[in-house]
Design a protein that fits this description.
The structure is a homodimer.
Chain A (H helix, E strand, L loop, with lengths): L8 H18 L4 H8 L3 H8 L7 H10 L4 H11 L5
Chain lengths: 86, 86
Amino acid sequence: MRKRKKHGKEQALKALGDAMRHRRVDLKLTQEEVGKAAKLHRTYVTDIENGLRNVSFLTLMRLAEALHCPLSLLMIETERQDGWEM
Amino acid sequence: MRKRKKHGKEQALKALGDAMRHRRVDLKLTQEEVGKAAKLHRTYVTDIENGLRNVSFLTLMRLAEALHCPLSLLMIETERQDGWEM
């Protein structure tokens, strides 16, 4: 079982934002394109990538779809950013 | 790449709830115990398991911690419930 290191909410949101940004940049998509596909305003995508929004599960699902990957993959990357350990 | 089948929000929330319930039952925990660990009311945990709540990312993180597993694992199980395909 993996255990998460102690950290604040801000760090978890930042890790999620970083994972999303990395995925988007890998796909050579703009925040506007991701926003359009996920039915979110571009500035909202910016905020998420900057760790400023605590998004809901359904929004996460739409974002994962816009980023052409399962949500579990984004979570794996988020946990990696966030310093989970095996 | 895996592609998600067309489905409603309700089905995605139901899949999340089912994944959480399975994990909790596997651990022989009550909804009250999970709620206490995640700082949520027992009835809120009930609602989540019944697919009636669109929880936030930070709440999902707390629930995963209460269920002693990384959030990515819960998402993998959610996607399996929700009928993702390889």
